[in-house]
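Bench log, entry 3. Co-assembly request; chain sequences pasted below exactly as received.
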Amino acid sequence: MTLDNQLLSTTRLIGIGVSPGYAIGRAHFVDRKRIKVPHRHLAPRDLESECQRFRQAISVSEDQIKSLKSQLKSAGDEHYLILDAHRLMLQDDMLIDGTEKLIREHKLNAEWALQKVLRSIKQVFDNIDDEYFRERRSDIDFVGERLQRNLLGKDQPTLANVAPNSIVIAQDLSPADTAQLLNSSVIGFVTEVGGRTSHTAIMARSLELPAVVAVDGLVDEVGTGDILVVDGSNGRVHVNPTPEEVRRYQKRQVAFIEERAKLEQLRQDEAVTTDGVSVNVSGNIELPEETNFVLEHGANGVGLFRTEFLYMNRSSLPTEDEQFLAYRRVIEECGPNVSTIRTVDLGGDKLADFLNVEEEDNPVMGLRAVRFCLLHPEIFRTQAKALLRASAFGPLRIMVPLISRLDEVRAVKSIFRMCREELAREGVAMAPQVPFGIMIEVPAAALIAGQLAQEVDFFSIGTNDLVQYTLAVDRGNPHVAPLYAPLHPAMLTLLTGIAEAGRRHKIDVSMCGEMGGDPLCLPVVIGLGIHNLSMNATSIPLVKAMVRSLSVSDCEALVQEIKSLSTTEAIEDCVRWRLREMLTGTACEPMLEALFDDPSMIADPLTDD
Amino acid sequence: MSVLNQDVEIINKLGLHARAAAALVRVTNQFESDITLAKGGIAVNAKSILGMMTLAAGLGATIRVQCTGDDAEAAMVAVVECIQNRFGESE
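Structure output for the full assembly:
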């Protein structure tokens, strides 16, 4: 691959990383020009032949799908079944009768009639609250598009001639598209639309190829032949990267592949230190579907399930039943390991569209999370009841975000108590005890940890926000992002205090912020006595491997050493030095170079709490 | 000519999604009876894959199956069995 693209400017695009890994290759653009649907009124004598033409197009479409299915080997099981569903859609009365009715009664040409029928079917989908089902409307688009192309005599886009090491770029990819790619040597996918549950995401993950979706402006910025770097782990696409960027990503790619291969066998092993201390490593999720993903990466459970997704991108509040199903799903999939579910952190920068909350100048410090919930107890009670009902299906811990006062804790506990009593009166099954904990992410909570520890069952330290609030640094602001430092002496003081309070009052202290998954902070976290960590899936294998290579006593010694240092730089240097020493001669030694020589290996700070 | 009603719970992980709906459609189309599925007051034709997908019945949802016709009994047995066998899916 020659880098003759140096004269072209580099563009950086941002999307949602839905399948981790890195790919460097040439773009293969799948261009679906929007079909212009002709609108004609027909003469009465032409209506029958128009219906015939329509049925003919259906037959051609069916044959095409049959042909695609026959090309699949059994590895395409998922594809086979979805294409089969598409075939059934083509035989569906709603589609056929609906279209022929419009042709005959309104004298429309077949393309127009079909367009109207598809629109009305999709309208029903738009009103579905569940994101996963709503995404299935794209299946109707794909089938509809195939039919329209056949009616208009246009070719179906083909992916048969994709060059090896291509990265497929499209507005969106249908199961028919990806079915054709199974036996090719495509190395990554990027689409302009889509989400975590869209077809592209599901297929990319099962193929273990990097993919980024929801990339605004993709179709305008990229053309076939452009060189691309796809960063599926962080949701970035670099178009015509500089030679230096290419080198950097090649290193990451190698590290990723090596790490994955090496850690395949390690990930199922327990995370136990060399001196026999068990460290619980769980996963953070935002959607129930991600439970499997974190478990596959070796998680001991779900340490943080952010429930906001249930309230976003919809026009009504989630019902108790809906919530109950989502929680039960996670709890059951996780079982017998523990799931920790966080009550909704609404408001701030995650406002749900329909709640008429006044715009706040500083939403992050405003009416959100527990404050919002206590002011809207009916919303909170619905969630509480759903959680209590779900507790009957496996080990559950409930935690509440943004606590800053003891009276908040008491008010929340009181609400849960009342909900429990109501459910008990109705004879609803619940676990007899559900541990109730709080996030420590507000400095005030950290400073009164001793009092809070006496009234809750556990803490979970939300380091992302705790560091931001304590250092008054907005991670998302590039001018000050470098000042964001989990190893700042003030943070060490706070964390020590929190861990201390936990020990004194005998409650579990866990950490669900990024700091627990950051290799360079891990020895400090362990040394502080925090042995219950939760992080995103991709960090789990490395953290487990590191735990197995470290000893708690060395980590504790490190913490004592850095307590006497007064600057962040000195602390960070000391930690790096000691960690290097600790990992030399262990299974993690090969990763040392990646960890220390390339600062860009550290997780991108631009991710949410 | 009989009209039968029965409530069934969806127990497969992904609910009544495209693949599951396809499996069910293949079953319902073997019978003469009219077969509908209803959830939350909305009823759809169980011989229509599109109709069933719009029902958006996820894991844990209870749907009411109604069969009307001469082979209603056989149809009901087949439909209920299909749903209880998780539409042939492993989970």
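Chain B touches chain A at residues 13-15, 17-19, 21-22, 25-26, 45, 47-51, 53-54, 56, 58-61 (CB under 8 Å). The CA atoms of residues 5 and 35 of chain B lie 10 Å apart.
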